[in-house]
Amino acid sequence: MHPMVPYWWYKSAVSAENCRRILDLGLDTIAAQRTRGMATTGTTFGASHRGAARAGAQAAADRTLDDLTGGGSDTATREKVKAQTYIRDCELCFLNEDWIYQLIYPLVVDANARAGWHYEFDYAEPVQFTVYHPGNFYGWHIDGHTCHHSAFRLREPATVLSEGRTPKFLVDNPRMVGKVRKLSITVNLSPPDSYQGGNLKFDFGPHARERFHECEEIRPQGSAVVFPSYIYHEVTPVISGTRYSMVLWALGQPFR
């Protein structure tokens, strides 16, 4: 499955004033969570993030699995490298304010129509506010799979988690159960000259006319990009400054 239009973007769709409001709210929320002893480290399914990485683990940064293995194709080598690599290093919190949804959810609906995807979705997760400091990144990943095997399931109260580990597809929100992430939207909250690096980068696959694309289109503050959640993407390492962004996922029944 691959869309004819791989992404749809909007320049400065969120005003500088609203970017500042979201940024202040996100930073205050992170600070409050730290005060309460809550973790603010970005996590991943399967614990492939820095907070759960074993001692001596290497950062994926802007490297694919092929880069990390030196082209080694045997399963044992690839699994060993994956186990010794973390793909995420950032800080985040989640926001539920209605006024933020009112700013960005209509962009998802509009892009879904304009790009010709016409995906069916009926729920949006909390907004993820993310902070990338110098050296932080989020390596190659997808936000969601497409079939019923990957639909979210309700976590049982007795589920025991190993340290830093989030079981795949298990959630605490009943409204997510039975659904998959279909569309993702990323909004850049930072002025373009306030950081270097930290670009959203797509991998459209080996048969695409342009396989890799750094989405420079959303460097202007308040710019947004909407894309199918099953497309591989990353946030390249921040070289200097701090990148602030927010992400929202639109959920619906698995593709058929």
How large a portion of the residues is in β-strands, by DSSP E? 25-35%
Low-confidence stretches: none
Could you name the CATH topology?
Jelly Rolls
Tally of individual helices: 4
Number of discrete domains = 1
Radius of gyration, in Å, reads: 18 Å
Describe, in plain words, how this protein is organized in 3D.
This protein is of the alpha+beta class. The chain has a single domain, classed as Jelly Rolls (Sandwich), CATH 2.60.120. Helix content is 20%, strand content 29%. It has helices at 16-35, 65-69, 75-83, 98-114; strands at residues 8-10, 58-59, 85-86, 88-89, 91-95, 123-124, 127-132, 137-141, 153-154, 170-171, 180-188, 195-197, 200-203, 212-214, 224-228, 232-235, 238-241, 243-252. The strands form 5 sheets. Strands 1, 5, 6, 7, 11, 15 and 18 form a 7-stranded antiparallel sheet that branches. Strands 4-8-16-13-14 form a 5-stranded antiparallel sheet, with no helix packed on it. A two-stranded parallel ribbon has the order 2-3. The longest helix has 20 residues, at 16-35. The chain starts with 7 loop residues before the first strand and ends with a strand.
